[in-house]
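>> received
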Amino acid sequence: MTRLVVVSNRVADPGAGQASGGLAVCLLDAMRDRGGMWFGWNGQLVADENEIAASCSRYGRCTLMTIPLTERDHREFYLGFSNQVLWPIHHYRLDLAHFTLEAAEGYRRVNARFADVLAPHLHRSDLIWVHDYQLIPLGAELRSRGVGNEIGFFFHIPFPPPEVLTAVPEYEWLVSSLLEYDLVGFQTAADHANFCRFVCEFLDGQKVSPDTLRVSGKYLKSGVFPVGIDVESFVAMAQDPAAIKRIQRRERNDKRRIYAIGVDRLDYSKGLPEKFRAFRRLLDSYPDNSKPVTLIQVASPTRDDLKAYIDIRHELEALSGKINGRFGDFDWTPLRYIHRSVARETLAVHYRASRIGLVTPLRDGMNLVAKEYIAAQDVADPGVLILSRFAGAAEDLQEALIVNPYDIDEVAHAMRRAIEMPKEERIERHRMLMKRIRQRDACNWMRSFLRALRSCRGHLRGKLVLTTPLAIANAPAKRVTG
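>> returned
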């Protein structure tokens, strides 16, 4: 069987008990049994490049090969260009983007090093799948080292409209790098349309079919591949007998309380201050002696050394304190704000016990929390998912209550509607949502992308004409074909 080689900025630690973000969750779920190799950063920092060495470990049938970054790499490549330029711009936050030449150079340098380390370990028949914004130029770096295998790229984050993307000083080089892949995948039809429009309007490309672009003599496949979760695994997690006992014990102690839950990384794209204000508006709408709902908000730490993240943490702490100070009582804490990571097994229990799943990012590639919340519900008495229209998941999960996260009155109204929704309606909405997340689970996501990548073999390869400026600069004397 053809070996799959996955490359991402970070390789998750399977023994950590919880995954660090949506990318790690879906890849661990999908690769658990399939096998192959996963290459990337191990999360460790070293003083200089002389200390960088690859190490390997096994996870079932999968080989995990990792390298550390230098402290300079982490500052320039990761915190700098990846998370102070690409992340805000891809999430439509031009006001938070901060570009420096040092960060751009660090981004190029680390992608080149990834290619240097990975290329000697590749087999001629490997399928290579590169993930997310940190590694956009990796395909071009591998091509320049003679790698002719099929290489696919997948964006887990949104792809912005051309008018937004051109705010990146390096945008021409970045998009030219994408042309070195055989297949580029996106979470939503809107993201795919933004990419196609950029190629056609800014690079004089042509859309020759729904999934094929032609630009500068080169043909590129692109398409929509929504990320999913391992549904049955999460269902089993939420139905664990010990977990159900914990839910029943809580319900006995607090029969009248309704719970809402939000689980997000602490990031400005997640709309957390807006969520807190909407919750406060909900509480304002009830009589003074009513204690209708408790919001549990898990906000796991991320990028704590960047100012934008420090600012939002302080804002959330202030908002939660004001809400609890105004509405709380001796027997009721309206908002339980948890600023730490929580294991998925624990989250599954709380999802199942919560009448409302509150998923309201200002902009999100997909958002797997929405799908986990659905999977965890009791089919006989399910909760209600409230979902931002700006989350990629909203393109498919139409039976959720779809809201504008910037409109706190609309979100508050949706919460009240979820509290009062009849059981029959909740059951029917949940039935349709479960059907959708099963149709597009983690395995189907992986299979559909790899099927599309394999179809590039021999179909596009004979048509490749490397005439883009980047390709001319990087083209090897002779490409090794897969």
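>> The longest strand covers residues 36-46.
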